[in-house]
Write a structure and sequence with these properties.
single chain, 368 residues, alpha+beta, Immunoglobulin-like, 4 domains, seven-stranded mixed sheet, 14% helix, 31% strand
Length: 368
């Protein structure tokens, strides 16, 4: 196994032009980038049992009629709202929780309808990455937490007290070498009071190789980290002809893997390689595609000695790439949330909006 760590992507000026091309696509078709999500085999199970908070019965884990427990409003809050609701026999009196009504039932008035408690939702995530990997979770482009997987690579994480709305959740992992996976992005529409179980979040493996060009006839090693004992599928594409070939290997119990590509039977030219994994019947999405070439000599990748980019790093991983572009794209033509203002001010233009100026900053500091 190579002792030194090289970057997964050799950054070229072309990558900046590629980003600018994405910007123009964004302007022409704003939904295009947002639709490029890696849902792979993620399954979402919805439990709407929290509608018990408005059925007039004390059930589930309620501590009173339609109140208390993990999802319903606090018991007794309806007793001071000036409305005859829940099981009250008068306005804010009677029933199981409010004071006894004086004079036989109190007051009328107030009009019916009732004031129902605000229903909140819970989202439970589960998946597999690498052994003891650091997982990053973002909501609408904002980092909300990090946590670690178990030694088997499995993880579970819950978000509570989520209000109704449309969200975009992003997951990615950091491996033992400090490298980052491709990010997985998927939308989730949260309905008030529902609970959601999001399963089969399978993080693609990291992939490294040390040569930006390999001499034809020499073997080129690809290595990285994956879920322990997973099957890895490589797809190799000739950038000129578009022809593809596939090969596979198996990760060891720690999730590390290595594959030697024999290049003697291959033609010289530019190539791209990407990778995915399979565990039982579940496959991950493919990783990003990484370029290299086969030629007349071997040229190693330069070892990066640069520090974190001064601007453009929206998710704090010391890189400026499609993750950051995706975050900026989400806020394009939207009101920037207060939780994202500080990031916009420090990493982009600082005018509290996302526009072409911000995308040009991303292009300038682009690392890939």
């Amino acid at each position: 196994m190579p002792k030194r760590l090289s970057k997964s992507i050799f950054v070229t000026q072309a990558s900046k032009y590629f980003l600018l091309g994405l910007v123009f696509l964004l302007l022409a078709l704003p939904t295009l980038v947002l639709a490029a999500v890696a849902t792979q085999n993620v399954t979402i199970t919805i439990n709407n049992s929290s509608y018990h908070c408005a059925n007039g019965t004390q059930d589930y884990d309620e501590t009173g009629i339609d109140c208390g427990g993990s999802l319903c409003g606090t018991c007794g809050s309806h007793c001071t709202n000036g409305i005859k609701d829940f099981d009250e026999v008068g306005v804010d009196c009677g029933g199981s929780l409010c004071p006894t009504c004086s004079g036989g039932g109190g007051g009328g008035g107030g009009g019916g309808g009732g004031s129902l408690p605000i229903l909140l939702s819970t989202i439970n995530f589960s998946g597999i990455a690498y052994s003891n990997a650091k997982i990053f979770i973002l909501r609408d482009g904002i980092l909300i937490n990090t946590f670690f997987t178990s030694s088997s690579g499995a993880f579970q994480y819950s978000l509570n007290s989520i209000t109704a709305g449309n969200y975009r959740y992003t997951f990615y992992a950091q491996d033992a070498r400090g490298g980052y996976s491709t990010h997985l992005v998927f939308p989730l529409t949260v309905v008030a009071g529902n609970s959601y179980q999001v399963n089969n979040i399978l993080i693609p493996p990291t992939l490294y190789f040390n040569s930006q060009e390999i001499k034809r006839g020499e073997k080129m090693e690809f290595y990285g980290q994956s879920a322990p004992n997973s099957i890895l599928f490589f797809e190799l594409k000739n950038s000129t002809s578009g022809s593809t070939s596939t090969f596979q290997t198996i990760a060891d119990p720690s999730g590390k893997f290595s594959y030697l590509l024999e290049t003697s039977g291959m033609i010289e030219g530019s190539y791209e390689i990407k990778i995915k994994i399979k565990i039982a019947t579940t496959e991950s999405a493919y990783s990003n595609s990484f370029p290299f070439s086969i030629g007349a000599k071997t040229v190693e990748k330069p070892i990066s000695t640069t520090k974190c980019p001064a601007k453009g790093d929206l998710n704090g991983d010391c890189r400026v790439n499609l993750v950051d572009f995706s975050i900026a794209a989400y806020w394009y033509k939207r009101t920037v949330a207060s939780s994202f203002i500080n990031t916009e001010n420090s990493q982009l233009n600082g005018d509290d909006i996302i526009n072409l100026i911000d995308f040009s900053i991303l292009a300038y500091y682009w690392t890939g």
